[in-house]
């Protein structure tokens, strides 16, 4: 582990005149798996979309010491930011393989084939279905494809927005297992989750977001022990997983 | 400029005088019904027309898929190409070069105005190179080459090369600044672009109509049917370009990236496909397809500065018939439009344009009933 991979300072994001993220700051070291947890509507998706450049924001975003703030989305992707969005946003009428290849659109051509082999080795299911149209995949397979497509960019930082959303518990376990594997392989990961228990189990560090602000942060075991957070926001017990 | 082979085998493509000439022939034979020979004639005409419309129609489908613009002015590329070739055949400097320079200046101004906040030196240099220096180089080349009369292949090449950059320029001038507007707004702007281009066409090319030399002066007969080399060239070229088109979108990463933009815009942006470049590339391809159509129709009809409109509109009809979504459907619909046009010009030549455009009404009705959500 070395250096800071992501530094967000005082980020404000608004939809029109309604501000929903109020001055969020966070920082993560290279190779870490950080999670941001919080209830519905806390502003987690908004935060990630602003970091990647889908939404305009004020404040600063730095990736590995490089300022991202003034850059458009395409250039942030080229610099090494990858987002697996909440709604996957796959190319439904194109094959699994084409979806993956396009994930490597910004990479040199000779590297793309190699990355594709890596992804197929990590997700054998995608290899079996390489010729199938993305729109016909099951929910779990779509999540795998969305992750695979993001990894094809060989990102410096992989951000995932609720990868467990809408998946059966068994598949959620697969997804989280893959995240730990990726982390072991040295990928820096920013994981946004409502499934707080699962996220806290695999994270190195956690932020709690409430109503557009970071209200707590710390080691996952500390967060998991905080009685106030457990009762009011994390919904342990309510969240059957 | 008319040569004999052109005067005799002029299909119904757009130009009323051509088909009337041929029609008066069939009227002299005193037939109002379609017998099998006439049917074959009409079929041949229909296929030739349809082949040209198909090139324009898939360009429209492409542009719509990538940018949501219904690009009515596609026909202008066709007309301007034919006029450029005609000028070169006469050993004159094609006015196209000035048009290109004018569009380049406008595109440069438009981009600088739109991105003045984030303008870098590198970007300025690229604008200058593409919008100003490139047209100037073309002017120099054309000035040298035009009086030398180097032959048809050179004229065609030069014309195509002059037309292609106009696609991305038009996109940057008119559509990129309003890329997120509704389809209706984009359509209205497309009409605005059409009128502006026709106006510029009149200024630069003048009001005279002109035809270009046939691609092939050979012909052979197949039963009662005389098949001209020109018509074979038209159909063969179209088939080749449709195949290239399919190959490009099915195989190349750039082609797939363009498809991705129309499949899921957010997804495309998230993998780093720059949507502005995608728009420019699709307009460039459209200009290229339009230029190819221009090469093909130049020998078939007398082309005026505003001849593109009817070609564009018929391609529009075909693209709409194909639902603005499917390339194969657009090709089939183009052939149908071409054949219907040939048939209508035989039965009721005065009304043929009206009847062709009337084809669109049942389709629009059907679509408005089958998709009640009616998202823009
Ligand atoms: N496009 C939008 N326009 C206006 N308001 C929006 C928009 N998208 C989200 N919001 C609002 O912003 C707030 C934060 O939404 P966001 O989607 O970021 O929450 P979240 O933490 O990701 O929630 P969830 O866990 O349900 O995904 C919510 O109050 C939401 O209603
Ligand atoms: Mg969310």
Descriptive report:
The complex is a heterodimer of chains A (241) and B (376). Chain A contains ten helices and ten strands. Chain A is α/β, with parallel strands linked by helices. Chain A folds into two domains: 1-80 and 159-241, P-loop containing nucleotide triphosphate hydrolases (Rossmann fold, 3-Layer(aba) Sandwich); 90-154, no CATH class. In chain A, the strands form two sheets. In chain A, strands 6-7-8-3-9-10 form a six-stranded mixed β-sheet, sandwiched between helices. Chain A has a four-stranded antiparallel β-sheet with strand order 2-1-4-5, with helices on one face. Mean pLDDT of chain A is 90; it is low at 236-241. Chain B is mainly alpha-helical and 376 residues long. Chain B has helices at 4-8, 16-28, 36-67, 74-89, 96-114, 121-145, 152-163, 166-175, 183-205, 229-251, 253-263, 265-270, 275-297, 308-321, 327-347, 352-358, 360-370, and strands spanning 219-222, 225-228. Chain B has a two-stranded antiparallel ribbon. In chain B, a hairpin with a 2-residue loop joins strand 1 (219-222) and strand 2 (225-228). The termini of chain B are far apart. The model of chain B is unreliable at 1-12, 14-31 and 372-376 (pLDDT under 50). Adenosine-5'-triphosphate is lined by residues 15, 20, 38, 40-46, 86, 194 of chain A. Residues 15, 20, 38, 40-46, 86, 194 of chain A line the site of adenosine-5'-triphosphate (ATP).
């Amino acid at each position: 582990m070395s250096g800071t991979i992501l530094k967000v300072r005082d980020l404000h994001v608004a939809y029109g005149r309604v501000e929903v993220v109020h001055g969020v700051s966070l920082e993560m070291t290279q190779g870490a798996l950080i999670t941001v947890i919080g209830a519905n509507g806390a502003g987690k998706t908004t935060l990630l979309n602003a970091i990647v450049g889908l939404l305009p924001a004020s404040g600063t975003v730095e990736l590995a010491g490089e300022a991202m703030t003034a850059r458009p989305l395409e250039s942030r992707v080229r610099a090494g930011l990858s987002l697996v969005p909440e709604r996957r946003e796959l190319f439904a009428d194109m094959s699994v393989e084409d979806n993956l290849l396009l994930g490597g659109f910004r990479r040199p051509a000779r590297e793309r084939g190699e990355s594709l082999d890596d992804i197929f080795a990590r997700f054998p299911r995608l290899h079996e279905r390489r010729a199938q149209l993305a729109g016909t995949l099951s929910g779990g397979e779509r999540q795998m494809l969305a992750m695979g497509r993001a990894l094809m960019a060989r990102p410096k930082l992989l951000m995932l927005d609720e990868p467990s959303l809408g998946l059966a518990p068994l598949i959620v376990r697969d997804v989280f297992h893959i995240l730990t594997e990726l982390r072991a392989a040295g990928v820096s990961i920013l994981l946004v989750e409502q499934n707080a228990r699962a996220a806290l189990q695999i994270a190195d560090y956690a932020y709690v977001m409430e109503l557009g602000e970071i209200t707590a942060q710390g080691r996952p075991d500390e967060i998991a022990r905080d009685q106030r957070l457990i009762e009011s926001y994390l919904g342990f017990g309510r969240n059957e997983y | 400029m008319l040569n004999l082979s052109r005067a005799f085998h002029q299909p119904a493509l757009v130009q009323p005088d051509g088909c009337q000439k041929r029609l008066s022939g069939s009227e002299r034979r005193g037939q109002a019904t379609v017998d099998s020979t006439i049917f074959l004639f009409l079929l041949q005409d229909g296929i030739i027309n349809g082949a040209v419309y198909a090139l324009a129609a898939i360009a429209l489908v492409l542009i719509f898929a990538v940018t949501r613009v219904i690009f009515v002015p596609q026909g202008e590329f066709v007309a301007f190409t034919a006029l450029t070739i005609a000028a070169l055949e006469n050993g004159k400097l094609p006015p196209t070069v000035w048009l290109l320079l004018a569009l380049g200046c406008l595109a440069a101004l438009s981009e600088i105005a739109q991105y003045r906040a984030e303008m870098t030196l590198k970007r300025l240099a690229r604008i200058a190179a593409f919008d100003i220096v490139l047209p100037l180089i073309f002017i120099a080349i054309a000035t040298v080459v035009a009086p030398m009369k180097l032959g048809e292949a050179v004229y065609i090449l030069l014309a195509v090369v002059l037309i292609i950059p106009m696609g991305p320029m038009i996109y940057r001038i008119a559509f990129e600044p309003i890329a997120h507007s509704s389809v209706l707004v984009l359509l209205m702007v497309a009409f605005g672009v059409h009128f502006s281009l026709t106006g510029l066409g009149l200024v630069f090319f003048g009001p005279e109509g002109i035809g270009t030399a046939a691609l092939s002066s050979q012909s052979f007969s197949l039963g009662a049917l005389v098949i001209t080399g020109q018509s074979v060239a038209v159909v063969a070229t179209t088939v080749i370009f449709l195949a290239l088109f399919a190959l490009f979108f099915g195989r190349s990463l750039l082609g797939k990236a363009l498809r991705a933009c129309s499949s899921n815009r957010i997804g495309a942006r998230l993998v780093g496909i720059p949507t502005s470049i995608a728009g420019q590339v699709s307009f460039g391809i459209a200009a290229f397809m339009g230029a190819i159509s221009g090469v093909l129709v130049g020998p078939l009809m007398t082309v005026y500065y505003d001849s593109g409109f009817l070609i564009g509109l018929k391609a529009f009809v075909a693209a709409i018939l194909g639902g603005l979504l499917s390339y194969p459907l657009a090709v089939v619909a183009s052939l149908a439009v071409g054949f219907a046009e040939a048939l209508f010009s035989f039965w009721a030549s005065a009304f043929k344009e009206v009847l062709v455009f009337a084809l669109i009404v049942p389709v629009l009705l059907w679509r408005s009933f089958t998709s009640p959500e009616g998202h823009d």
